[in-house]
Amino acid sequence: MERAENNELFVRLYVDADITPRLARTLDYTNICSAFVKTLLAENFVQINGKCKRPEVLEKRELEARRQQRLLREFETILEQVRRGQKLENVRKEAVLAGFAQLYREKRFQEIPRVGRKLPPRIVESSTEIYDFIDIAEAKVG
Fold first, then answer.
1. What is the pLDDT of residues 55-113, one digit of tens each?
2. In 36-72, which positions are buried (b, 16+ CB within 10 angstroms) versus exposed (e)?
3. pTM score, two decimals?
4. Dist. CA 121–CA 124, nearest whole Å
5. Of 21, 31, 43, 105, which has the maximum CB count within 10 A?
6. How far apart are CA 97 and CA 128, in angstroms?
7. In 10 A of CB 78, how many CB atoms?
8. How far is the C-alpha of 46 from the C-alpha of 54, rounded, in Å?
9. In whole angstroms, what is the distance from residue 37 CA to residue 23 CA?
């Protein structure tokens, strides 16, 4: 199971109740993943009086904007690795999609296939969206 699917499963398990105490009991031993959990909670819930609650419609937009910014920052590190000629290993599919969409909007088509060639084949093969971005960008670059 991919990390994004794990995140969605984690969020679904704790969405319907006051998750903070349950989460604290469940993850009592985890200093390792506390940063990950804090990021996950910050991206998907609103803190009210120290407790995590489901966001309202306007808050959802703000949370989605924060998430998108984080994904784009993550994609920038991917771009830097590609520019340095480093091999890409642990890459989030969501970050690649967000970055490709941004590059496409900015008409920076030549960078999409460059990143695509460095991606692990399993990521490109498992995502038709990523494959389509690469294919269309290659056609535009010619």
1. 676 677 888 888 899 999 999 999 999 999 998 888 999 999 999 999 999 999 999 99
2. eeeebbebbbbeeeeebeebeeeeeeebeeebeebbe
3. 0.63
4. 5
5. 43
6. 11
7. 19
8. 6
9. 9
